[in-house]
Amino acid sequence: MSANNQGTEFDLSWISKVQVNQPAVLRRAEQIQTRRTVKKDWQAAWLLKAVTFIDLTTLSGDDTLSNVQRLCYKAKYPIREDLLKALNMQDKGITTAAVCVYPARVCDAVKALKDAGCDIPVASVATGFPAGQTHLKTRLDEIRLAIEDGAKEIDVVINRSLVLTGQWEALYDEIRQFRKACGDAHLKTILATGELGSLTNVYKASMIAMMAGSDFIKTSTGKETVNATFPVAIVMVRAIRDFFWKTGNKIGFKPAGGIRTAKDSIAWLSLIKEELGDEWLKPELFRIGASTLLSDIERQIYHHVTGRYAAYHDLPMA
């Protein structure tokens, strides 16, 4: 991961006059989604690239030691070895970018990855995920405990009420405290955009999160009714671009929730390539939060190699 974002002083003038042009954003979003996708070898290459951006995630009430272990094994071996050999990619070290779990499962994930002999980082959600409606002290303790257990990345959720009521300085101060509690760990700030009310609020919350020291801004918890959408993503990546122009700091972007198909993943990579450029197409600056996406990517690669679709039992479970 790149050096942590130390943030900037709070400056309301960066957001006070902003108004997002919603019809223009929607037109641009439609353009990305309706474009013809890449085919054949190019498609296989893009899909393997997409695998390396995945934060392979399990955030279920019924998570157990065994399914966290299975997730970690899948993170190390995301695509079947014989398929990689057929593409001459078996020695390229293709793994997912991270494994993402609840704080109580961080120890299990760290141990499973260590036993598998790999250094894939463990990301933990924190700060009262998914609602963020717990006491600030509890939220900060949750960050510290996850880091003590070995988490290298922390996905925090913001208190949405601060955005909805326009308390921008209070939001900045909370995220500053999250940044301090994270220490050297990477801070990914989940905006829960489906609950922010408007695209203008999405832009403002994105900018405040980056000012306060977030290394990544992330669309959603995956638990809202509306998760990662292209209009929201366009607003967020343009906020990232504006922040880069103002400060010279590159902040990462992570869409999460509802990204399930290989075709979806290629559209997300295209968006980043066009809006932020190739330099953002690396795991240090782009992630996809997903639990079922990897299975579909593996199915598509299986089809590319063999010419037929995999039966359910042909591919190992994630």
From TrEMBL:
Active site: 218 (schiff-base intermediate with acetaldehyde), 254 (proton donor/acceptor)
Record's catalysed reaction(s): 2-deoxy-D-ribose 5-phosphate = D-glyceraldehyde 3-phosphate + acetaldehyde
Major site of localization recorded for this protein: cytoplasm
Any single Gene Ontology cellular-component annotation: nucleoplasm
E.C. number(s) listed in UniProt: 4.1.2.4
Coiled coil: none
Keyword entries, A-Z: Cytoplasm, Lyase, Nucleus, Schiff base
One GO BP annotation of this record: deoxyribonucleoside catabolic process
Function summary: Catalyzes a reversible aldol reaction between acetaldehyde and D-glyceraldehyde 3-phosphate to generate 2-deoxy-D-ribose 5-phosphate. Participates in stress granule (SG) assembly. May allow ATP production from extracellular deoxyinosine in conditions of energy deprivation.
Protein name: Deoxyribose-phosphate aldolase
Gene name tied to this protein: DERA
